[in-house]
């Protein structure tokens, strides 16, 4: 599964950089795999983050960001993707609300933007969307250092 490979590949960087704050923004490719179970995806992701914080005591806060909406998908139809995305986001929020040093981060100004922030491919962000995404991540960092 893509997210497991991505997260595992970052372990060396985390060990060497020793960040105090980690922000995780996963794409939705894993939710486009036909047999993906969103409940398992959300549980494995939060479990991985908990383990990471135990193994790396220098990490003081982890943000897991909401998964983005997609207008176009591969492997499953858009409705299935959206249903899975909603389940994952709700589960992540519910779980992380109980954790002291972990936060579920919503990109409110990005997701609720009246402007078109999705590129023509229906998956990636436009230049404007990328700027809004950057600002949202910056706001998360500011929230963490308060």
From TrEMBL:
<protein>
    <submittedName>
        <fullName>Uncharacterized protein</fullName>
    </submittedName>
</protein>
<dbReference type="InterPro" id="IPR036514">
    <property type="entry name" value="SGNH_hydro_sf"/>
</dbReference>
């Amino acid at each position: 599964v893509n997210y497991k490979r991505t997260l595992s590949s970052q372990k060396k960087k985390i060990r060497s950089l020793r960040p105090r704050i980690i922000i995780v923004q996963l794409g939705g490719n894993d939710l486009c795999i036909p047999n993906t179970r969103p409940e398992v995806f959300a549980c494995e992701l939060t479990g991985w983050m908990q383990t990471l914080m135990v193994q790396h005591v220098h990490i003081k806060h982890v943000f897991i960001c909401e998964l983005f909406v997609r207008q176009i998908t591969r492997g499953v139809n858009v409705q299935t993707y959206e249903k899975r995305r909603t389940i994952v986001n709700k589960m992540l929020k519910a779980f992380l609300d109980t954790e002291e040093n972990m936060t579920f981060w919503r990109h409110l100004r990005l997701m609720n933007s009246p402007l078109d922030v999705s590129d023509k491919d229906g998956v990636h962000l436009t230049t404007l969307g990328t700027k809004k995404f950057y600002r949202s991540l910056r706001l998360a960092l500011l929230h963490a250092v308060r």
